[in-house]
Design a protein that fits this description.
Chain lengths: 199, 648
């Protein structure tokens, strides 16, 4: 009976196979999300290059606050690094390291969410202010959705860590959350580069 | 090792499992969904009704509320919330979710058993096909004579649009549902999908999209046609909002299902089932799922932009504000052409699966067929702009896109070679599934050849707006993919239901559909070549005869489809018992009882040979006559370590 996996009773697969499946599934889901995010970037570049009727960024309109966006990006990347240290900690069997790192990562994600909402409340553009505004706001909103999902996952994995459900022999769920975390950090960097560096 | 670790699900007590899931089902989902939808709509009206896009925003809020409410009510979020809380589902919970001992009620719950999910998908697909078919009959009735006033122009356009999208969606449901969910795990020797809960989530995410699809009519329809081109979509009634929300849901559902199918096929194949020994149908389903996973998010983005243009005043497709309708066209066709192959490949793979079984010969050029499938996937991503030859977008790219489109005819042609080579000099056993193989060959040949004409820029300039295109893609999708899918349904019907499909009625249905189909669409080709435009509710009297014949043909198709439906329903209820392997086939699904038990295989199989080794000296059985299971597989008791990456 001990061979039964709680989360896969009907398969009765070995834990390493289940872990292998889950990692692949998350990577494929990230692939689909990458196509989605890539399509947003394509839209940004495409409309930027066409600049139809000179309405990409109409006269008198400013772009969003670059420092704020870069700060959000930096905080998101830092959160990923914090979580990376947590992940390495649990792989070494250091539960406290995992709890501390993941809690720090979660805190930084919440800060990033707060900053993104602050940016949205204060930015000088509306969705209807031309195609720059539309594409920028959508990319920001998608990043916000990423961060909210990430926060939920981070709460979950941290809570599981507290409950002792993760250890150096069983931390696959932490790895899965990590995959998504790094992907979110990457999209933050790509989004910031797209909307500012390339603008 | 195996005996010691073998765990039989039946020995595990199940009372007490399920928790709150025992009280949740489709009906609680509908109740919660309606409550949340009404609340969200009212809130939307309250906050946004003052501005220009207020109605759109309220409608979208209501639809999103419906979806979330439904998913909460059906129990889709129970497992994720319990994961967050660290209270994982127990074995008893999982067995309850798998539908153990629940009878018919498991079809109305968040049930994880892949056979239940596959059956749910099948019933849903047949229902939506029925709706799409009725719309097709309505369209053809409008066109039976010139000057017919049955439908107004707007209503006609709206019906054409809904017919198009509902048929596309239904066919993709067939791919991920009965084939990807029901058949594929059995064929690879697995006990379930890799992620049973994601499997159920994919279905129950799709389910709330159906009322939203149907609400399109209540919100003014989609007069843009199924392509929902901008800027028409920006100016259309709120039916477009419903369309866009439904498409977004559909894409999410398809992505979940695709990931599950791909990972299942990659990691749960039976021991010994290397990719070389994997049935071609499984390869086809994986190829189709991967293509859908890559292509469909582009449509999701296009629909998101459409919603934002309409409800938030965004300017993605509004040229005055810096938008471009070509952005929409590119995003749409980046999905649109691969989607043709998402639909086509499973039908094609099903035909390739059936041909060796009924020819009692190995699949001719099996490796070449797999390479061609891969080539189809790759090339289909590189041809999208041939749909935009006449749009004025990037004329300098017309040549490269013409070339890439014509290249696709090479792997497509290979399939004809493979099929004919398989049938050639075989001991052909002409049962009903084999008729569908022949039907596929005939229809798809015509669809394929006419596609080569259309890939040519000058010819496309002449024919793009004509009924010729409509006839071409119906030959490809209805005559090819759909005939293949119907054949697959006949082929696996005994496995799914435990009963044989009534072959006499089924054969009548087959010939009725085939004759009606060729009458309808040959006449449509003729009208198209003569210059009759597509997407019109009325036409010149010179096209009257062709349209009359097409409509009669369509009615004959309708009769054939009803006959087929009758064969399915009556056989499902009271057909002849099928036994485990009525076709004497070699693949693994025929090793389990019909219908299969909860966990499919009591012991996991080990594969040692080619699934199509009919007539080869080193196989133990060479004919279908009275043969016991033929596959070169042995059954071994399964422990947790007995299933591993098959190719390792």
């Amino acid at each position: 009976m001990s061979t039964v996996q709680h989360n896969t009773p009907s398969h009765r697969l070995a834990p390493e196979i289940v872990a292998h499946q889950q990692r692949r599934a998350v990577l494929f889901m990230i692939l689909a999300d990458a196509v989605f995010f890539g399509s947003l970037m394509f839209a940004y570049f495409y409309l930027r290059s066409l600049n139809v009727n000179d309405a990409w960024l109409p006269d008198g309109l400013n772009t969003a606050s670059a420092p704020t966006v870069w700060i959000i990006t930096a905080v998101t990347v830092l959160s990923a690094l914090a979580y990376r240290s947590a992940e390495m900690g649990i792989a070494r069997g250091q539960r406290s390291s995992f709890l501390g790192g993941s809690l720090l990562g979660l805190g930084l994600v919440i800060v990033a969410i707060g900053l993104t909402i602050h940016l949205a409340m204060t930015w000088p553009i509306l969705m209807s202010d031309g195609s720059y505004a539309s594409t920028f706001i959508v990319m920001t909103f998608v990043e916000l959705v990423h961060l909210v999902i990430l926060a939920l996952l981070a709460i979950g994995i941290w809570n599981r860590g507290i409950q002792g459900k993760l250890d150096d022999g069983n931390y696959n769920h932490a790895t899965l959350v990590g995959y998504f975390w790094y992907w979110v950090a990457l999209t933050a960097v790509l989004g910031a580069l797209t909307t500012f560096y390339v603008n | 090792m195996a005996e010691a670790t073998l765990v039989r699900a039946e020995t595990v007590p199940s009372p007490g499992g399920g928790g709150i899931m025992r009280r949740l089902n489709m009906f609680t989902g509908i109740i919660v969904g309606v409550i949340v939808a009404v609340a969200a709509y009212k809130i939307g009206q309250h906050f946004w009704v003052e501005n220009d896009q207020g109605n759109d925003q309220a409608v979208i809020a209501g639809e999103v509320g419906w979806v979330f409410g439904f998913l909460i009510g059906v129990g889709a979020f129970v497992a994720p919330v319990r994961w967050m809380l660290g209270r994982d589902l127990t074995h008893e919970d999982e067995m309850f979710l798998a539908g153990k001992d629940q009878g018919i009620s498991r079809y109305f719950r968040f049930t994880t058993d892949h056979k239940v999910v596959g059956t749910q998908y099948l019933v849903l697909a047949m229902t939506t096909f029925g709706v799409g078919g009725i719309l097709a009959m309505t369209i053809r009735t409008q066109l039976i004579v010139p000057g017919n006033s049955l439908l107004g122009g707007q209503a006609y356009n709206a019906i054409v649009g809904v017919h198009g999208i509902i048929m596309i969606v239904s066919t993709i449901i067939m791919v991920v549902g009965p084939w990807g969910n029901f058949v594929m795990p059995l064929m690879i020797g697995a006990r379930d999908m890799a992620f049973p809960r994601i499997n159920a989530l994919s279905f129950w995410t799709l389910f709330p999209a159906i009322p939203i699809f149907l609400s399109i009519a209540a919100f003014g329809g989609i007069p843009t046609g199924w392509v929902a081109y901008a800027p028409l979509s920006d100016q259309a009634p709120p039916g477009i909002d419903a369309f866009a929300v439904a498409i977004i849901l559909f894409v999410i559902s398809a992505a979940l299902a695709s990931v599950n199918i791909i990972v299942t096929a990659m990691t749960m194949r039976a021991r010994g089932m290397t990719w070389n020994r994997t049935p071609i149908f499984v390869v086809g389903i994986v190829a189709s799922s991967l293509l859908g996973l890559i292509a469909l998010p582009c449509f999701e983005v296009a629909m998101t932009f459409t919603l934002l243009d309409r409800s938030m005043g965004a300017s993605f497709f509004v040229p005055d504000q810096g938008g471009s309708q070509w952005l929409y066209a590119n995003l749409f066709w980046l999905m649109g052409h691969p989607e043709v192959y998402v639909i086509l490949i499973p039908g094609l793979a099903a035909v390739l699966e059936m041909a060796p079984v009924f020819s009692r010969k190995p699949l001719f050029g099996a490796r070449l067929a797999v390479i061609s499938l891969i080539a189809l996937v790759v090339l289909s991503i590189l041809v999208w702009a041939h749909h935009m030859f006449v749009s004025g977008w990037a004329p300098t790219l017309a040549g490269p896109f013409m070339l890439s489109t014509e290249l696709i005819s090479i792997p497509t042609g290979v399939f004809f070679l493979v099929l004919i080579g398989t049938i050639w000099r075989g001991s052909v056993w002409t049962r009903l599934p084999m008729l569908f193989v022949y039907g596929f060959l005939w229809n798809f040949m015509i669809g394929g050849v006419t596609g080569i004409f259309l890939s040519d820029v000058p010819a496309d300039n002449e024919l793009h707006g004509a009924l010729f295109v409509t006839a071409h893609f119906h030959y490809t999708l209805l005559g090819g993919a759909m005939i293949g899918a119907m054949g697959a349904l006949v082929y696996w019907f005994p496995k799914m239901t435990g009963r044989m499909l009534n072959e006499r009625v089924g054969t009548v249905a087959f010939w009725t559909v085939m004759i009606g189909f060729n009458i309808a669409f040959m006449a449509m080709f003729a009208d198209g070549l003569a210059g009759m435009p597509r997407r019109v509710a009325n036409y010149q009297p010179e096209f009257a005869l062709g349209n009359f014949i097409t409509t009669i043909g369509a009615y004959i198709i309708g009769i054939g489809m009803l006959t087929f439906l009758y064969a399915i329903v009556s056989s499902w209820r009271s057909g002849k018992p099928a036994g485990p392997n009525p076709w004497h086939a070699k693949t693994l699904e025929w090793f389990v009882p019909s219908p299969p038990p909860l966990e499919n295989f009591e012991v996991l199989p080990v594969v040692t040979g080619d699934p199509y080794g009919y007539g080869e000296p080193d196989t133990r059985h060479t004919t279908h006559a009275g043969a016991p299971p033929l596959v070169d597989a042995v059954l071994v008791p399964a422990g947790p370590e007995s299933t591993s990456e098959a190719s390792s």
